[in-house]
């Protein structure tokens, strides 16, 4: 007698406990969504969490060979369109036209502010105009990123007066950089706390996070940079005077023309020197690239 083919009954039915388990997962998800909708998010802490979650999924997870740091870095300043637009808008403001320069380098984004009376002469005390500009930049840079910021303090080539509390331009430059750091970590922090008091109470704005003193690194430049530019200016003027003497010896110009042109070169040097000194009435902010950890 031929064997009868067994009817294909299909896979066995799922276990009864799976239905209960599925219902439990749905209830838990609903519960946590409800908690999230009722909570207040701190922007600073949220950004920290976002950076930490981004690292493992970016393709370059932390490695024990690099001390737990990833090999990738990003600039939140240049990658954030809103920050970039606001910076360029401030740069185009007629009040600051030609006085703000935005550049990228290997370390991050550098904001150069020059040709303004940022400090009282021979002093590290910020002027009202300086505080106004730093305040506007602070709202853009500090409250929309968690990047560390290096602050560079400059002076011109003239040494401090004998009665000054600063023994050198190096000390004065350091004090000026520290004044900017203190303005952000103290004065502006207090002002923004009062202006956004309602958001602070609701947990939507955390001044302790954004204006943490550990974000700011004052660095003294002093007169080092301007002295390099002055030396280049002197070398250029001396080369032109040497060329005049050669032309005189070859009979191309007479003595009167040579003396007149030398006088004009001396006047040009004085004018260009004053232009350089105005240029080095300056503060630089370097927003360091954000290292993913």
Q: Which stretches are low in confidence, meaning pLDDT under 50 for 5 or more residues running?
A: 57-72
- Helices and strands, in order, run as HHEHHEEHEHHHEHHEE
**Radius of gyration computed on alpha carbons:** 31 Å
SS-based structural class? alpha+beta
What topology, given as strand order, has the largest sheet?
Answer: 2-3-6-4-5
Most strands sheet: 5 strands, mixed
Number of helices: 10
Strand content: 5-15%
Give the number of DSSP strands: 7
| Mean of residue pLDDT values | 83
Please tell me what the overall shape is.
elongated
Euclidean distance between termini CA atoms: 74 Å
Helix share of residues?
40-55%
What does this structure look like?
- The chain is an alpha+beta fold and 293 residues long.
- Helices cover 53% and strands 12% of the residues.
- The chain is built from ten helices and seven strands.
- Strands 2-3-6-4-5 form a five-stranded mixed β-sheet. It has a two-stranded antiparallel ribbon with strand order 1-7.
- β2 and β3 form a beta hairpin.
- The chain is elongated and about 115 Å long.
- 19% of the residues are buried.
- About 5% of the residues have low confidence.
Topology:
Elements: H1 17-38, H2 43-57, E1 73-74, H3 76-79, H4 81-91, E2 100-104, E3 108-113, H5 128-141, E4 149-154, H6 169-195, H7 197-202, H8 207-210, E5 216-222, H9 224-249, H10 255-279, E6 283-288, E7 290-291
Parallel strand pairs: 4-5
Antiparallel strand pairs: 1-7, 2-3, 3-6, 4-6
Helix pairs in contact: 4-5, 5-6, 9-10
Task: Write a compact overview of the structure shown.
This protein has 293 residues and is an alpha+beta fold. The protein has helices spanning 17-38, 43-57, 76-79, 81-91, 128-141, 169-195, 197-202, 207-210, 224-249, 255-279, and strands at 73-74, 100-104, 108-113, 149-154, 216-222, 283-288, 290-291. A hairpin with a 3-residue loop joins strand 2 (100-104) and strand 3.
